[in-house]
Design a protein that fits this description.
Blueprint lengths: L8 H8 L3 H9 L6 H14 L5 H6 L6 E6 L8 H13 L3 E6 L4 H13 L5 E4 L5 H10 L3 E4 L10 E3 L2 H14 L5 E5 L6 H16 L9 E3 L4 H8 L11 E4 L2 H13 L9 E3 L16 E3 L2 H16 L9 E3 L3 E3 L9
Parallel strand pairs: 1-2, 1-3, 3-4, 4-5, 5-11, 6-7, 6-8, 8-9
Antiparallel strand pairs: 10-12
């Protein structure tokens, strides 16, 4: 067949030896088309150069085949595994993902949500439960299939999949207390408009209080999610007397910065000071020293969240939000040891 510019669905069907309806079905409901047939269609698409006009389909009330994902940041490894797992599951079902970031600004998140809906996304995934009233109202009025990832809440307004961050904070605090530490400091980001960090910090301080320990304000440092900033912010901790023997960080990125700050002061981790993170990011197990942390299972969270969102997109009614808790666990590694 002679190639032509702007090949259409009929050209693809003729090239693959199937009907145009089968080509359409392979796009919109790939699970209902034989794998061998889908592969013939994929070869025909590649050979003809056919590109679907999803925008036109959306205007006509047909499926756009896209979902939106709004995350706070892509600057570090915090959400990388989560995004990868979510994207792979969506792609298996024929969906393309549009990713955007709001930089921990919930007003900006609302504007980004509006933009995604203008592009006729069929569903939206968000991070956590701190969202503006405008965002929640828009989701409800538009009846948008939506799922929140990364933080389980038993009373969430929308469906959610994730670990219980308060529990993660308690678990890592227990680990440090069980190692005999009493001179403890914490390093967390701002908890304003960040329910994940807020819940983790609450869990840490609550468990320590129950164990009869307090963390004075001067040992509670605040830093952004950056190794460099965490290193600079944590430097003052190791000039204090008495010096803390353990530092609990809000995630592994901050923990790595704290480790560098300790080493810059000539301290050994963990012989002079133990350091922990939360998240178990890529590289935490292979760092030197490897980082003791709390595994949050981002791959599992992303896959389950995608499946949950697909159920809503495919028409399964949701009378109440679905709330799925993914277990968390402490991974003890080289950055912590028993206190003398």
């Amino acid at each position: 067949m002679k190639n032509k510019l702007n090949a259409d669905i009929i050209d693809v069907a003729n090239h693959a030896g199937v009907s145009p309806a089968t080509v359409s079905r392979s796009f919109n409901h790939p699970d209902k088309v034989l794998l061998s047939t889908r592969k013939r269609i994929e070869r025909a698409i590649a050979q003809t150069g056919y590109i679907r006009n999803r925008a036109a389909q959306a205007i006509q009330g047909k499926r756009s085949g896209t979902v939106g994902l709004i995350v706070p940041t892509l600057d570090n490894a915090i959400f990388s595994n989560l995004i990868q797992a979510f994207s792979e599951e969506m792609r298996l079902h024929g969906f393309t993902m549009l990713v955007t970031t709001h930089g921990y600004d919930l007003k900006d998140e609302y504007l980004l949500l509006r933009s995604l809906l203008e592009h006729r996304v069929e569903g939206v995934a968000l991070i956590g439960h701190d969202h503006s009233d405008e965002t929640y109202t828009l989701l409800e009025r538009r009846n948008v299939p939506v799922v929140s990832m990364w933080n389980y809440k038993e009373d969430s307004k929308i469906s959610c999949v994730g670990g219980e961050n308060d529990q993660a904070g308690r678990a890592i605090a227990k680990h440090i207390v069980d190692l005999g530490h009493t001179e403890i400091a914490i390093a967390f980001p701002s908890v304003k408009e960040n329910d994940r960090a807020r819940d983790r910090k609450h869990g840490v301080l609550a468990y320590l209080a129950e164990a009869g320990l307090t963390v004075p304000v001067h040992r509670q440092i605040e830093t952004v999610y950056s190794i460099a900033n965490a290193r600079n912010s944590a430097a003052e901790l190791f000039e204090m007397q008495p010096r803390p023997t353990a530092v609990i960080a809000g995630n592994d990125v901050i923990a790595q910065g704290v480790i560098y700050a300790a080493q810059a002061k000539g301290l050994d981790v963990p012989n002079d000071v133990s350091v922990t993170g939360i998240g178990d990011f890529s590289g935490s197990a292979s760092a030197f020293p490897s980082v003791t942390t709390v595994r949050m299972r981002p791959n599992k969270v992303g896959k389950i969240a995608a499946s949950l969102l697909l159920e809503r997109i495919n028409g399964e009614d949701e009378t109440d939000p679905s709330r799925i808790k993914v277990a968390v666990e402490v991974k003890s590694r080289e950055s912590t040891k028993r206190c003398c």
